[in-house]
Amino acid sequence: MHRAICRALAGLWLLIASALAVLVPAQAGAQTDNGPVLHVFWSHTCPVCIRQAPWIDGLEARYPGLRVVKMELSQDERYRPLFQEMASERGIRAEFVPTLMLGPRAWVGDTQAQRAEIEAAIEATLAGVAPEPAANGALRLPMLGEVDPASASLMGLTVLIAFVDGFNPCSLWVLTLLLGMVIASGSRRRVAVVGVSFLLTTALIYGAFIAGLFSIMAWAFALPWVRWAVALFALGFGLVSIKDYFWYGRGISFSIPEGQKPGIYTRLRRLRQADLGMPALVGATVAMAAGIALVELPCTAGFPVLWSGILAERGIATGAGFWGLLSVYVLIYLGVELIIFAVAVTAMSLGRMGERHGRALKLIGGAVMVALAGAMALRPEMMEDFAASTQLFAAAMGLAALVLLIDRLRAGGQRG
């Protein structure tokens, strides 16, 4: 008799425990009768989440009646279906963390403007005013369809940075020199083989470099001072590039060292040898491109460091989203070189990049980098607004163009 009662009680307890295990996560998304609930989806691997945590931990003390429910996603998969369900109800994608939800509202990321908006929504809810659902700010882009503004701003910023980075004087100097020497052979096929091999090798090495850099940044941005360190690095890199326009070759310079150039000339001349078969030509081009890419990394590191820092601060994790953005970055970066390559193959002639062109490109790139460094340090919310980012780029490039125009007019006046 006692044994039967014990078995019945044990069965009842297992039933209750199973029901609680199912209901607890589901009920985490519901509003309680005791007050509003702020749901926080975060991850141990997200530096933005870690930076945001002290502010979140202090909300319950500052707003009595508020309950904060934190759900970690990287180590507890049971919350991911709930994250997807609640995100879908609010018209956002369950892709990025931190994501905070209060009633029908949702916020992705962490900025001072968002914190103020969340606190205002908490105060309104505690006062009995139900927060209105946020307006659907999705954008419709050609071929991409509907894209939320956060994703659109990050994609737009990637395109802008990669485009300016594509006009890197070091890589363009090597490419024009390479194609110019191979064109002298008179073989369009030889030019095509060398150009494709060189560009593919450059893309793979540059992409691998950025991916490795981002993995370091994603970890380091958990430290509060790293954003300032990245901004300071970008500021220094940009100022040195601007210096190179006015005082080229003096002092510190992020360019291919003069001592390395004779070796580059020697390796490039080997590609003109007529006795090189196609397999040997491809192998020689790949080896040469890999060596040159490593030599010119100090010249090309500025924008990748800045871009990786922006992604890390926005909470982008290594996954499909990052690899998609990296692919766009590399394609845009190579776009300028692809155009030069297409002209070389079509016309079988190509001018060589001179010092004047390189100095002008350094001025433009340096101006953009200084502007981005200032925004990262002082106005990071500008990085989350594509219109503001575009205006920042336009202002920096416009100022550089004005300096180039004034310098040209002054040079023309002196010659007259």
Structural features:
416 residues, four-stranded mixed sheet, 6% strand, Glutaredoxin, two-stranded antiparallel sheet, 6 strands, alpha+beta, 2 domains
Outline the structure in words:
By secondary structure, the protein is α+β, with helices and mostly antiparallel strands. The chain has 2 domains: 34-135, Glutaredoxin (3-Layer(aba) Sandwich), CATH 3.40.30; 148-415, no CATH class. It has 16 helices and 6 strands. It has helices at 2-27, 47-57, 59-62, 80-89, 112-126, 149-166, 169-183, 188-220, 226-246, 261-270, 278-295, 297-300, 302-313, 320-347, 355-378, 386-415, and strands at 37-42, 67-72, 99-102, 105-108, 139-141, 145-147. It starts with a helix and ends with a helix. Residues 12-33 and 135-147 have low confidence and may be disordered.
List the helices and strands and how they pair.
Layout: H1 2-27, E1 37-42, H2 47-57, H3 59-62, E2 67-72, H4 80-89, E3 99-102, E4 105-108, H5 112-126, E5 139-141, E6 145-147, H6 149-166, H7 169-183, H8 188-220, H9 226-246, H10 261-270, H11 278-295, H12 297-300, H13 302-313, H14 320-347, H15 355-378, H16 386-415
Parallel strand pairs: 1-2
Antiparallel strand pairs: 1-3, 3-4, 5-6
Summarize it.
The protein is of the alpha+beta class and 416 residues long. 67% of the residues lie in helices and 6% in strands.
Report strand order across the widest sheet: 2-1-3-4
Q: How is the biggest beta sheet arranged? A: 4 strands, mixed
Q: How many domains, as an integer? A: 2
What's the number of extended β-strand segments? 6
Distinct helical segment count: 16
Q: What is the C-alpha radius of gyration, as a whole number of Å?
A: 28 Å
Unreliable residue stretches: 12-33, 135-147
Please tell me the overall pLDDT. 76
> What is the helix fraction of residues, given as a range?
55-70%
**Pairing-aware structural class of the strands and helices?**
alpha+beta
Termini distance?
116 Å
SSE series: HEHHEHEEHEEHHHHHHHHHHH
Beta-strand residue fraction:
5-15%
Q: Shape, please?
A: elongated
